[in-house]
Design a protein that fits this description.
Layout lengths: L9 E2 L1 H5 L7 E5 L4 H6 L6 E2 L19 H11 L6 E5 L5 H12 L5 E4 L2 H7 L25 E2 L1 H7 L5 E5 L3 H5 L15 E2 L6 E2 L5 E2 L2 H10 L7 E5 L5 H11 L5 E4 L2 H5 L12
Length: about 280
């Protein structure tokens, strides 16, 4: 018997529709705009705005929220160890991946990503609903696990480590320093660039491309399972997807720098490299 608890990390629409009536299932829609959710979402899905997942405080606006904000979110969703959480969005996995990272932070390991998000769901001809859903909120005790995140100081202390590889998920222009989204442009010294959208199949409703092809492309950049991998972007939004991708590839030691370039590039004292 298929239940929510049996779902793997990466699921297709047909797998999700088979368990929608499971009372232990929590489906979270992380569409970039609430209006997209209201136009049509997976039946039973609750909406979580991206602002609930970030601190919003400059310079590192994408950093993990304060404990009180995180507590409000998880209590609102009522997520307990009995729930299997399915996340999706409308952009190929950025905010959905960020939600998975957040679940890792609170120690919740029962989750799945709907491959291709709402685009794949609609393409499969499955029913959507327009009525907003409210979660079964309940008090939840949070235990924060800091292992999935790294700080700026950690990176500064380990930049020369041969065991560390920094995965920059931003665009090539941002990485090279041509495009400037902070006080300073460029990249963290030693970081390698694999833009997040490279992992998506544009002709398959933004589903994830063949994982073995991606594994080979990453290996050519030095991003391999034997390394400690730290991924980041500008606000740890795009790198939410690359964090998820790393987990799908079985990278046991993938973490995220949630301060990302917003923090690093606005600090006048951090080392920066460019390729311009």
């Amino acid at each position: 018997m298929t239940t929510a608890k049996n779902l793997p990390l990466l699921i297709e629409p047909e797998q999700l529709v088979a368990v929608l009536d499971d009372p232990q299932l929590t489906v979270i829609d992380l569409a970039c705009k609430e209006q997209t959710y209201l136009v049509g979402h997976v039946p039973g899905a609750v909406y979580v705005p991206s602002s609930a997942l970030i601190s919003g405080k400059p310079p590192g606006v994408g950093m993990l929220p304060e404990p009180q904000q995180l507590d409000r979110l998880i209590n609102y969703l009522g997520i307990t160890e009995d729930n299997h959480v399915v996340v999706y969005d409308d952009e190929g996995g950025g905010w959905a991946g960020r939600m998975i990272w957040t679940l890792d932070i609170i120690g919740h390991k029962q989750y799945s990503y709907l491959n291709g998000g709402i685009h794949a769901w609609v393409d499969a001809g499955l029913e959507t609903e327009t009525t907003p859903r409210m979660p079964f909120s309940k008090p939840v005790r949070l235990d924060i696990d800091e292992q999935p995140r790294v700080t700026k100081q950690y990176l500064l202390d380990n930049l020369d480590s041969p065991e560390l590889v920094i995965w920059d998920a931003r665009s090539p222009g941002e990485y090279s320093g041509v495009k400037k989204n902070a006080a300073r442009a460029g990249h963290i010294p030693g970081a390698v660039n694999y833009e997040w959208t490279r992992g998506m199949a544009q002709d398959r409703q933004l589903r994830i491309r063949d994982l073995e092809d991606i594994r080979q492309e990453l290996a050519e950049l030095g991003i391999t399972s034997d390394k400690e991998i730290v991924t980041h972007c500008q606000t740890h939004h795009r790198s939410g997807f690359t964090y998820l991708l790393g987990k799908l590839l079985g990278f046991q030691n993938i973490r995220a720098y949630d301060g990302s370039w917003g923090e690093w590039g606005n600090d006048p004292d951090t080392p920066i490299a460019t390729s311009t």
